[in-house]
Amino acid sequence: MTSEADDTIAAIASPMTPAPRGIVRLSGHDCVDVLCRMQILDSAELIGRRPFRTSKTLALGEPLGAIDIDVMVWPTQRSYTGQPSAELHLVGSPPLLQSSLDAAIRAGARAARPGEFTMRSFLAGRLDLTQAEAVLGVIEAEDRGALDQALSQLAGNLSRPLQSARSTLLDLLADVEAGLDFVDEDIEFISDEVLVGRLNELRSLLAQTRSQLSDRGGATPTIRVVLRGLPNAGKSRLINVLSRTDSAIVTDQAGTTRDLVTVESSWGGHSFQLIDTAGLESREESDPEAPISQEAQRQAAEAAEGADVHVWCKDATLGDDFGSLKGPNAMLPDAKRSAELICVATKRDLMPEDWSGDSMQADLAVSSESGVGVDALIERLVDFAEQRDAGETGNVIGTAARCQDSLAASIDHLAQAIQWTEQMAGHELVAAEMRLAVEAIGEVTGQVYTDDILDRVFGRFCIGK
User: What is the spatial distance between Cα 315 and Cα 300, in angstroms, rounded to a whole number?
Assistant: First the structure.
């Protein structure tokens, strides 16, 4: 053994569910030597071997005697930890497991610390830091939704875009610094216009990732629901019925709503923020109310960009359908890709009794006067909340809590780099901010780390993982 990092570690691997079999797990550069000293394997068995499984006998001494075990061996670096590893599978009796662990320690192994197997996998480059945290998410998952989140993150759904962003940023940084090296020759490797555009794209990607992490980390558990549609489509009356308040002003005159009206509601154990927006319209520049209308439309579009659910309202009496919002090529205006669309035909009470809304391709037909369809709309919103809790973004809470500051710092550094570029303040300053952004992204995925970060991540693991 050359150093503590090279020690062979051993631990009883706690099964995720009660089982009649138990496991003693070993890993380290002299793992095979430990197995030989335990008289489980003979060195001749390992010549030219790939990972293999065999049945052996392990002598535990009196009073336990010898027990039959199955041995799984990864004699090369192609293992979970990136080191030679082995598992001893035996009867799941605590005294037998503890005696087998003691035998491994007497043969030269040492007891593993919490999370040390996964930390070795991270240090060997087989997992990045977000994937290592996902391992803990898999272990601690209490339902299918939480398990799906963790498995998605373990598969790289978070690390891949961040690693791609970091790689792109490094390429841009190389172009900027190459230009500094040839400043006297007036050689331009990348124009300021292209640089600003690429940096803005990266900043948007990181901001979206940070927003998703906030949602999964519990920072913004409330589901944002925006009501949209033409003027006089019944949005304000509907939000009053849903919230059981008179928050929105309701008149027969179209265009009454100008400012955003926000109401908090709760159904099925989920919190919702209902947002009433101005009706979609455009006015001629000569119209004296054009500036007010433009500001109302800007606020509506801004609210729509951050909404989780779009309730699109159309007056059933006008006969217009929702076809333009549906179909494979339809685009929901000002909506993020993960947003849910619910098409609602309003003023159902003014239509024939047997009218269902199918002719409008509506998801629901609702009357704010009679209350018809309101409960069905609430049920759709609760269903969306349940599905989102099952894992829309696939990020475990531990990752969200750890990464918020680093992602915020990377976004700030990119914003400053863009500002320096636009102000022509000098590419030395731009490059400095870009380097800081690269480092901040690296803290998330683990390309840049400290002992404190590793302690915080792996200290939450149980022994044997």
Answer: 19
